[in-house]
Amino acid sequence: MSIRRYFDQQLSDLRDRILLMGSRVQEELNLAMAAFASLDPDKANAVYAADRVVNETRFEIEEICFTLIVTQQPAARDLRTIIAAMNVIVDLERMGDQAKGIAKVVPHLLKNPGQERPPELRQMGEIVGKMLADTMTAYATNDVELAREIASRDDAVDMLYAQVFNKILGQMANAGTAEKAESVYEVLRVARELERYGDLATNVAERVIYLVTGAHLELNVDQ
């Protein structure tokens, strides 16, 4: 096998590892939303375990990237591929942190399980989950147009967040007790985690555009 072919195989393996990390982050979000919907502490614990795996995967990929830079002395195009990969895994790890943040709400809400959980939160979860899935497709296929389209969906996430925020303000004003106020705040925390998750998915879409075109674009100017 030629040196160039061997290096191309290493870059392909790197992409596959990132796609695997993306699928793990997706599963972590699914677990977190399920834990939130059912207030199931076992599912919340499963999110924590999944997040540890995501973090380990990030560091493994980071080490591979460093090794490729040091040992292969990549040319400009290859170096861009590696730099984009390093940025993507940071954003993916942070998305895992947002999912873990949702799971952390569960024990607080168990103290007041009757606390209203606005349906907009489920909608936000569905949208940002699809954003991540499609972002990984864009990354796998170098699809710039899909990456641009993904970023536009973040507007819907922001609108839903605003709706939840307004509802929470009203509930907070009528909370009555400190325990009730805490429960209301924890629901708002879920909305914030999901809103940030969407921002990070947009970041990854920007990395895809950089990878393919070499251009740095800010797709979500409201971040």
Query: What is the fourth-level CATH superfamily?
Result: Phosphate transport system protein phou homolog 2, domain 2
Number of beta strands: 0
Estimate what percentage of residues fall within beta strands: under 5%
Query: What is the first-to-last residue Cα distance?
Result: 45 Å
* Mean pLDDT, all residues: 92
Radius of gyration: 19 Å
The CATH class label is: Mainly Alpha
Low-pLDDT segments: none
How would you explain this protein's 3D organization?
By secondary structure, the chain is mainly α. The chain has one domain (3-213): Phosphate transport system protein phou homolog 2, domain 2 (Methane Monooxygenase Hydroxylase, Chain G, domain 1, Up-down Bundle). Helix content is 85%, strand content 0%. The chain is built from seven helices and no strands. Helix 4 runs parallel beside helix 7 (178-213). The longest helix has 36 residues, at 3-38.
